Amino acid sequence: MGKTREQLNTLPMLLKDKKSKKGGDTMGSTTVKVKLPEKVSMAKAVREYCLQCGGGQPVEVRDCRVTDCPLFAYRFGRNPKASITYLKQYYNVEIIQ
Ligand code: SF4
Predict the structure, then answer these.
(1) Going by C-beta distance under 8 Å and a sequence separation of 6 or more, which residues neighbour residue 64?
(2) Which of 11, 65, 66, 74 to mutate to test the pocket of ligand 1 (most atoms within 8 A of CB)?
(3) For 22-71, what is each residue's pLDDT tens digit?
(4) DSSP for 8-25?
(5) Is the beta carbon of 51 within 6 A of some atom in ligand 1?
(6) CA 56, 40, 43, 32 torsion-angle sign
(7) Residue 83 has what pLDDT?
(8) 46 lines ligand 1 (CB under 6 A)
(9) Cβ 80 under 6 angstroms from ligand 1
(10) Minimum-distance ligand 1 atom for the alpha carbon of 60
């Protein structure tokens, strides 16, 4: 893991900036970098992010304790209900609120 809550919130804060209706920055000279993904779903992108957060170790992502992280429910690269179904094949699953 190793990222602070503040660091994890950086990207969502940028995405939440809706001052411009076209999604751009209101500062005319500011450049925003955009990269087109190659068939990567949002869920898989979250998984990749979580793996980076966990130092590339899937076990670190599985055992993540940052339950208030906005990505927590999606860290397995599937929607949360699909994750529960999948995980129940291998683990005792405790559903938290
Ligand atoms: S849910 Fe993912 S991004 Fe959030 S702290 Fe856990 S491993 Fe890191």
Answers:
(1) 1, 50, 53, 54, 72, 75
(2) 66
(3) 555 556 789 989 888 787 789 999 999 999 999 999 999 999 999 999 99
(4) HTHHHHHHH--SSTTSS-
(5) no
(6) positive
(7) 94
(8) no
(9) no
(10) 7
- What's the whole-model pTM score? 0.67
Domain ranges across the chain: 1-12+38-97
Name the 3-class secondary structure at 81: helix
pLDDT at residue 68 in the model: 96
> Which protein residue's CA is at the shortest distance from atom 2 of ligand 1?
50
pLDDT reported for residue 21: 53
Task: Determine the pLDDT at residue 26.
Answer: 59
Count how many residues are written for the chain: 97
